[in-house]
Amino acid sequence: MSNYGNQVQLKVYQTMHNPDPERLPVVYEEWEERARHVLEDGPYYYVAGGAGGEKTMSSNLRAFDRWNIVPKMLRNVEDRDLTVDLFGTTYSSPLMVAPIGVQSIIHPDGDIASAKAAAAMNVPFITSSASSAPLEEIAKVMGDAPRWFQLYWNKDPEVTASFLRRAEASGYSAVVVTLDTPMMAWREYDLKNVYLPFLLGEGLGNYFTDPAFCSKLESSPQEDPTSAIMHWTQTFGNPGLTWEDISFLKEHTNLPILLKGILHPEDAKLALHYGVDGIIVSNHGGRQVDGAIGALEALPHICDIVQGEIPVLMDSGIRRGADVVKALALGAKAVLVGRPCMYGLAVAGERGVREVLQNMLADTDLTLALSGEKAIREVDRTNVMKAEDD
Ligand SMILES: Cc1cc2nc3c(=O)[nH]c(=O)nc-3n(C[C@H](O)[C@H](O)[C@H](O)COP(=O)(O)O)c2cc1C
Ligand SMILES: O=C(O)C(=O)c1ccccc1
């Protein structure tokens, strides 16, 4: 039980007579603006940009405007409970840090800094297959803090199996399999800037330390990085996969398996049929199919199919506490936060990510209370209405 949001507000206002010269932004748009100033064009647009004309990036944000919270009064919201239960574990809030690759292009401390921040805030951190530091090093700095592993299903089944083994051995407690990126989409800014971080060897920490990956090389990645990078580009994505292949993952891990990138109701049926443990409704932050449905728009349709049989999570467009509450009201059990954390990382490293998470948690807590609910798990469709002029 907590009043976390009130405490954070108080802490801020107490600095009134003693302003902090290192004060970090509160407003989401300011984080993005500050990140724009500290990052070069290549990395900034890599992070902030989307696929094609960025229609889906806009749809993600617009989808939140199409739903309104309808606050309820006089319901004793003095002490709130932000916890959520997933796969037999109780997590302290419905927030998670989305898997984001190549964080070394954003800050020299990269995912080590963001993982430490997540651990400090007790927000689960999802390590990307394309993390800059190897997954073991990230696990080490996190101690006992909650962490999941995101799998990019490699063309080489031995590498895929090896990643799963390594994640399990390093204390990751679930596997997020990203299905929407068997190849990179047409990303206009990256093409314009001629910027692809992997070709510079960024984001390959897990591959270059992997025995299965390295066994296929003629010389080590340290001796011949160019060949290792070329081998990575040829094996990273696996567009030949089908639903039947899900059994391979189940054979190679005992961890709960979540499919990330589900948008189509038919795919939700297939996910149930093939017996996965969870779904993440996501369009990869608008970075893959330009013109794809907004993630929040897809969410209720997926939840209608799933009927609570397995947990449904979502990401793509979460920027503030109200977004979190709307996603939960439409059926998500938890949400992943992507770019906001990365702007925090760009601006102030570990401290920046901590601040972004702290603010989003506080905003979520206050929005929950003011909406008339004292428990995250009690938020449901009665808390929202579709905008009338839609
Ligand atoms: C720079 C960047 C790198 C990403 N890398 C990965 C990745 O390695 N694996 C993955 O599953 N998703 C990746 N994503 C997608 C995020 O996990 C998440 O779906 C998306 O950022 C959510 O949308 P938001 O940024 O609007 O919050 C990446 C996103 C960004 C912005
Ligand atoms: O850039 C991305 O969206 C992404 O998912 C990715 C894929 C491979 C390596 C790093 C990031």
TrEMBL record:
Pfam families: FMN_dh. It catalyses: (S)-lactate + O2 = pyruvate + H2O2; mandelate + O2 = phenylglyoxylate + H2O2; 2-hydroxyoctadecanoate + O2 = 2-oxooctadecanoate + H2O2; a (2S)-2-hydroxycarboxylate + O2 = a 2-oxocarboxylate + H2O2. Its cofactor is FMN. FMN binds at P99, I100, G101, S128, Q150, T178, S282, D315, S316, G317, I318, R319, G338, R339. The keyword Oxidoreductase applies. Keywords: Flavoprotein, FMN, Monooxygenase, Oxidoreductase. The active site is at H284 (proton acceptor). CDD domains: LMO_FMN. It comes from the Bacteria. GO terms for molecular function: (S)-2-hydroxy-acid oxidase activity; FMN binding; monooxygenase activity. SUPFAM superfamilies: FMN-linked oxidoreductases (SSF51395). Signal peptide: none annotated. Its EC number is 1.1.3.15. PANTHER family: FMN-DEPENDENT ALPHA-HYDROXY ACID DEHYDROGENASE PB1A11.03, S -2-HYDROXY-ACID OXIDASE-RELATED. Belongs to the FMN-dependent alpha-hydroxy acid dehydrogenase family. This is L-lactate oxidase.
